[in-house]
Please model this.
Amino acid sequence: MSEETQKKELDAKHLEKLTVKELREIAAEIPHERAIHDMKKEELVAFIKEARGIKDEKPAKKKHVIKIKMTKPELKTRIRELKALRGQALESKENKKANLLRHQISQLKKKSRRVAAVAAA
Model:
């Protein structure tokens, strides 16, 4: 690798870690048409990369797709089972187990709401 390309790679990684104030100082050295003091950090980084000829290698972030494995009735059944187990754990004063079950119930409720939202859409 040539020294110049190695420097560009270091600059690209380094720019993300700089503060806005430092980025503005770097951007002030580059001839520009826009007011650099109005730019946000992402805009400053993009401006400096463009001026230096650094290409972004990262593609745009993809939305996280939720895979639903259980249907709503299955989720509701599992919630009922866990609630019964939690009731037993509370009666036998097993607080750690009861808290763990409460957390699992909460997570399943969130999943059931997502399933319902997907079904409605």
